[in-house]
Amino acid sequence: MQVRPRRQRPTAAPSRRAVVRGICFDLFTLFDPRGVERVAEAIAPGQAADLCREWRVRQFEYAWLRATAGQYRDFEVVTGEALDYAAGARGLSLSAADRRRLVAAYSELAPWPDTRAALEAWRGDGLRLAPLANYSPSMLARLLEHAGLADLFDAHISTDRARTFKPSPQAYALGPAALGLAREQIVFAAFGGWDAAGAAWFGFPTVWLNRLGVAPEALSGAAHAAGTTLADLAAFVVA
């Protein structure tokens, strides 16, 4: 039985907040990442949940390890490396075609049902919009084109430009540079609690969109607001 996440009301915005001129999004606030598991289930029936859980953990561990050690590779490469580990740890032998299909699934995710209407409304209000993603540039381009959303953004920001990954401050700094705005004028929408903390530490007014109802991270410097839908983000933007 699927348990619906409890709706979280946005908390109060910080006092004397700068006027919001733009929004940067983690991709999974706009796209449902569970599509990867559905592809994995077709390839490894009955093992998809465990495979994807380990894959996701290694994906971030490898990204942060490479960035910290000065051995940067882009997120598509890291995603493949992490998949190889996760499959091997479970004794799965993936064909080259299945490996390509699984990695490609990250660029073929479906938008959440509220994504298009929210982006169109914010664009109509004159806000500058951009994904700010750990995805490689080619992964990001394929995802946005696949969903038909590429033209709704003012910039497509991959942290590859800084040869690092969120939550590095150098990664978040790409947002103000690309949008031509001060960080205080850009709301950051985070999917992961760790990303919300990183964005808040950087200085973005930050909203944690807890789409899947996970437990909050035990980190100081929490997001300024939390919710579960883009309507919650919109309420913070206009507060």
Shape: globular
Regions with little confidence, pLDDT below 50 for 5+ residues: 1-15
Q: Please identify the structural class as seen in this structure.
A: alpha/beta
Helix content: 40-55%
Over the alpha carbons, how many angstroms does the gyration radius reach?
Answer: 18 Å
Report the count of strand segments.
6
The average pLDDT is 93
Give a quick set of tags describing it.
disordered N terminus; single chain; 239 residues; alpha/beta; 10 helices; 6 strands
Structure report:
The chain is an alpha/beta fold. It contains ten helices and six strands. A six-stranded parallel sheet has the order 3-2-1-4-5-6, with helices on both faces. Strand 2, helix 6 and strand 3 form a beta-alpha-beta unit. Helix 1 packs across helix 2. The protein is globular. It starts with 21 loop residues before the first strand and ends with a helix. The N terminus is likely disordered.
Topology:
Blueprint: E1 22-25, H1 35-43, H2 48-69, H3 75-89, H4 96-105, H5 115-124, E2 128-133, H6 137-147, E3 157-158, H7 169-172, H8 174-179, E4 186-190, H9 193-202, E5 206-209, E6 225-227, H10 230-238
Parallel strand pairs: 1-2, 1-4, 2-3, 4-5, 5-6
Give a nutshell description of this structure:
The chain is of the alpha/beta class and 239 residues long. It has ten helices and six strands; from the N terminus they run E-H-H-H-H-H-E-H-E-H-H-E-H-E-E-H. Helices cover 44% and strands 10% of the residues.
